[in-house]
């Protein structure tokens, strides 16, 4: 369709452009399917490539499950927030202990409960070294900023069984500053919806420096919900403990 001047109407796409768009979309889809198939074959045949800089105590399989990678050794961005007990805590106050840092939604019913189980498994796996490791989560839900929100989640997920657990929250601007400092993207569609956010786990050494970054893998049900078999949660917990143990110097 064209206007009176003979120009193509802006409301109709040219056939050639449609064909190009379809071809590009098809190529992208094929590339994604090919990559997924390659990753499945890696797992099935033990062809995983071990990233450089991974502690020797961590197997290639576990490192792959954690999507573990070293990061430039730089000072972790500081913050001062309030934890689930109403106590003011700062990253600097954890100096001389290893910090495992996550980002969680206190109203999450999907991925965050799984990570919570991994933290509990890691705490138990650390044994006598548990006192040298701190588990911290930063709130990513600006609709639920109250101490009561992070306290309720901590209790529901049994995270309070970890003596060194801190689910920290604060004002929206103060939390935004932490998200940005750690490159965490956050999208909160509404007060009753799970927050979509980057699933990242930072390992910070006893000197307050970033050392490793992880993003543990999950499976999904046909309905799209996240889940992991109990044995994989245990394995990921052991992996978290192994990295923390390495950084503790023990």
Notable features of this structure?
250 residues; Glutaredoxin; 6-stranded mixed sheet; two-stranded antiparallel sheet; 6 helices; 12 strands; 37% helix; globular; disordered N terminus
Notes on the protein architecture:
With 250 residues, the chain is of the alpha+beta class. The protein has six helices and twelve strands. The chain has helices spanning 15-45, 60-66, 111-126, 147-156, 172-181, 230-248, and strands at residues 69-75, 80-82, 88-90, 98-104, 133-139, 165-168, 186-187, 196-197, 201-204, 209-214, 219-220, 226-227. It has a six-stranded mixed β-sheet, with helices on both faces. A two-stranded antiparallel sheet has the order 2-3. A two-stranded antiparallel ribbon has the order 7-8. A hairpin with a 5-residue loop joins strand 11 (219-220) and strand 12. Helix 2 packs across helix 6 and helix 3 crosses helix 6.
